[in-house]
């Protein structure tokens, strides 16, 4: 199924509302974060299909490497602060998985978006100042 622009906008409006309801009700808030990340990553991944394969692969690799660097840095900081300073050796697993997955997918989608926009600007014949 192709994620059209109308569905993309609708889902971008729905996920924050579901997050708010999840926080208010106490359940499924982190699932809304994951859904938001999946929506952004899927939409901008589909945008890469407009480019040639080599350029799309370069953009994907760059986004994946930046996300992985962010993951390792964030995990080291979270472990350091959580374990050593707050004496919390464990966290709720399911909520953490949803939060981390949603954040990473959102970050990957936004990185792909910025690289895609730069590629479209560079490939156009427009004169920039």
UniProtKB/TrEMBL annotation:
<protein>
    <submittedName>
        <fullName>Uncharacterized protein</fullName>
    </submittedName>
</protein>
<feature type="transmembrane region" description="Helical">
    <location>
        <begin position="92"/>
        <end position="111"/>
    </location>
</feature>
<keyword id="KW-1133">Transmembrane helix</keyword>
<feature type="transmembrane region" description="Helical">
    <location>
        <begin position="30"/>
        <end position="46"/>
    </location>
</feature>
<keyword id="KW-0812">Transmembrane</keyword>
<keyword id="KW-0472">Membrane</keyword>
<feature type="transmembrane region" description="Helical">
    <location>
        <begin position="7"/>
        <end position="24"/>
    </location>
</feature>
<feature type="transmembrane region" description="Helical">
    <location>
        <begin position="67"/>
        <end position="86"/>
    </location>
</feature>
